[in-house]
């Protein structure tokens, strides 16, 4: 069982990431063939489980991190085709920028940001839960 405020935060984060997934699909979805085992966009209930992109986040306590604790953002491309490093970087940057753009709408009462943390992007800032 999760703290109700944590569940509320995670549900809101999922909605934000689904919007980022839509953004990536619209902008880059036709560039590469879909992995043969991957359902086409919209064929599953979870946007992260279909289409060319899987957008998610996993909590990191921040040990050894330059920005501390936060959520490591994952922007995965579901293709067997070789995606050049510069294109992957372009997609990651576009996704991180979209997260930054959406943060004030989804989390208007929190100070959150997205920063590079080594080789990944991390959502960090006010992750407090308050009282139950």
Ordered list of secondary-structure elements with their pairings:
Elements: H1 4-28, E1 53-60, E2 70-77, H2 85-106, E3 112-117, E4 120-125
Antiparallel strand pairs: 1-2, 2-4, 3-4
Mind explaining what this structure looks like?
There is one protein chain. Strand 3 (112-117) and strand 4 form a beta hairpin. The model has no long low-confidence stretch (mean pLDDT 92). 36% of the residues lie in helices and 21% in strands. Helix 1 crosses helix 2. Strands 1-2-4-3 form a four-stranded antiparallel sheet. The radius of gyration is 15 Å and the shape is globular. The chain has 132 residues and is an alpha+beta fold. It has helices at 4-28, 85-106; strands at residues 53-60, 70-77, 112-117, 120-125. The chain contains two helices and four strands, in the order αββαββ. The protein has one domain (4-125).
Number of domains: 1
How does the overall form come out from the CA principal axes?
A: globular
Q: What percent of residues are in strands?
A: 15-25%
Helix count equals 2
Amino-to-carboxy terminus distance: 13 Å
- The strand line-up of the biggest sheet is 1-2-4-3
Instruction: Let me know the largest β-sheet.
Output: 4 strands, antiparallel
| Spans of at least 5 consecutive residues with low confidence | none
Average residue pLDDT = 92
The strand count comes to 4
Q: What fraction, in percent, of the residue positions are helical?
A: 25-40%
Going by helix content, strand content and strand pairing, the class is alpha+beta
Integer-rounded radius of gyration: 15 Å
Q: Topology as H/E string? A: HEEHEE
